[in-house]
Design a protein that fits this description.
515 residues, globular, 38% helix, six-stranded parallel beta sheet, alpha/beta, 15% strand, single chain
Length: 515
């Protein structure tokens, strides 16, 4: 492979999470010229990257490829680069046709979409509803047709090799701007980015305002508020209106390169799973992700390989989640400023371990560090992604149920208990369970389970003495119409009581066979 094109003409966070794949590709083909097709506003992310030969600004989203004539002018432009291969990190019918008509011989992308499948030479089964595969790992899977394999179990690289590696021009001088805005050059900086790129619902700006006051009351940190554009400026105006504290307002006052330099100075970045939080994770900065909705899972979009925490109380909402249409505030107001402050204080007390340090490119971490941190991150994301349903039968034993309730409670995993029997038919003491764990056994018919799974955000159904049959598999698939991913059907025998990390690794392995 001499000339390779990567297509990723969407948001900042998506480009950030694609970059580890780009770096692995360059490591495998060190002499290859790798070009990346980007939207204009994301170009600075990769403009200084050592592994990028050139950036092609997307004609379509810039309005330069209008109509059929414009499309074929764009085809002519892509053909002029004589690419050997194109990798669709982002794919839709337009870009698939563009590269097909440009005559690129090797075209790799997700083969699940019928509208694009016919235009691909190598079709990858990217299971986007795989709860245990992060977006970075989804991108890694696109390299498989080129003989480049990666999985957590077979990870052979230190962290510095599987996180994005960015550079900025030396001309960027964000420190001067901060000092001009009142920073003393010493106080720890906390960046708050209160808007969302659209993938998730943003937390209420009024609550961000109250959070700023709490941070100033409880820490010696200086708050920096960021954003770009008219819409984000209006959001920040609401934030500041609801805060009594003095902050550094850098909305519409920084370039993307300056934002990248700002993140490197920060002690923590707070926001949804959006561009600035993913940039922060890339630099090894602490990240506090406020993720309100059920539908957007931290398991897929969590901060990749950094010291982080997820604040989510989506289970407080008892409605089926359609975040792009929902106008209700249930999931947003469930998270209170005190909840976010508590998590902030926790991660501030956590030292930046060697494998979290910002000089990742200089730190020779061990391979074991990579696997340990990935697993630790994933267990954190799992807790914020939904609930476990313990489904009991007449044969289920009290001490087994109490064991799992205690295990999940100890590790911060939310749990519900249900049965299809009447409580009087069970040999379980429901009152005792409630007094010890605050959980009641709910009587749920199989016909009601789809609604129950959707409303309670169930991601694992753990059957105690329960044999899965065709009805359960049908329920699982039907529930997938209303939730991000079908729940995992898991059955642990009574005499195999294990600790949480062991159970979590079993969930991961089991999902591969049930997807």
């Amino acid at each position: 492979m001499k000339r390779i094109l990567i297509v990723r003409p969407d948001a900042i966070g998506d480009v950030v999470l694609m970059t580890p794949m780009l770096q692995r590709l360059k490591a495998h083909y060190p002499s290859a010229q790798i070009s990346v097709l980007l939207q204009m506003y994301t170009v600075p992310l990769l403009s200084e990257h050592d592994d990028v030969f050139q950036i092609i600004e997307d004609w379509k989203k810039a309005g330069r490829a209008k109509g059929l004539l414009g499309f074929f002018e764009y085809v002519k432009e892509i053909r002029s680069h004589d690419f050997d291969c194109v990798i669709f990190s982002y794919i839709d019918e337009y870009y698939a046709k563009l590269c097909f008509f440009a005559g690129i011989p090797c075209r790799i992308g997700d083969g699940n979409r019928l509208s694009t499948r016919v235009f691909l030479s190598h079709k990858i089964n990217q299971s986007f509803r795989n709860l245990f595969r992060h977006e970075v790992e989804q991108n890694f899977s696109l390299l498989e047709p080129l003989g480049i394999q990666w999985s957590m179990d077979s990870c052979k690289e230190p962290i510095s090799k599987i996180v994005p590696c960015f550079k900025t021009p030396s001309s960027s001088d964000i420190q001067t701007k901060l000092i001009d805005q009142g920073w003393n050059g010493v106080s720890p900086l906390i960046i708050i980015h209160p808007s969302s790129g659209g993938g998730n619902r943003a937390w209420k700006p009024e609550l961000y305002g109250k959070l700023i006051d709490l941070i100033h009351e409880n820490t010696d940190c200086k708050i920096v508020v960021t954003g770009a554009g008219e819409v984000e400026a209006k959001i920040v105006a609401i934030v500041l209106k609801n805060s009594k504290s003095e902050v550094i307002n850098l909305v519409n006052k920084t370039s993307l390169h300056e934002l990248m330099d700002l993140v490197q100075l920060a002690d923590c970045v707070i926001g949804t799973d959006t561009g600035p939080t993913h940039i922060a994770a890339a630099y090894g900065c602490r990240v506090l992700s406020v993720s309100p909705t059920k539908f957007v899972k931290a398991m897929r979009w969590g901060p990749w390989l950094t010291n982080s925490a997820i604040v989510s109380k989506s289970s407080r909402c008892k409605k089926v989640c359609f975040p792009y249409k929902c106008g209700l505030d249930d999931c947003l107001i469930a998270i209170q400023p005190e909840d976010v402050l508590a998590e902030l204080l926790k991660i501030k007390e956590t030292d930046n371990f060697d494998h979290y340090k910002k000089d990742r490119s200089q730190k020779p971490e061990s391979i074991g560090d990579s696997i340990q941190v990935i697993q630790k991150n994933k267990m954190c994301w799992f807790k914020a992604s939904g609930k476990v349903l313990l489904f009991v039968t007449r044969e289920s034993k009290q001490h087994v149920l109490e064991y799992y309730l205690g295990l999940f409670k100890k590790n911060g995993v939310e749990v519900e208990i249900a049965t299809r029997h009447r409580l009087k038919q069970l040999s379980l003491n429901s009152d005792l369970l409630y007094s010890k764990f605050g959980k009641k056994i709910q009587e749920v018919r199989l016909s009601q389970l789809i609604k129950f799974i959707s409303k309670e955000d169930i991601i694992v159904i753990h059957g105690l003495n329960l044999n899965w049959g065709w009805k359960w598999n049908l329920i699982k698939q039907l529930a997938a119409l209303f939730v991000y991913c079908p729940p995992i059907l898991f059955n642990q025998l009574d005499d195999e009581l294990r600790e949480w990390p062991f159970l979590f690794s079993q969930f991961q392995r089991l999902y591969q066979g049930q997807k």
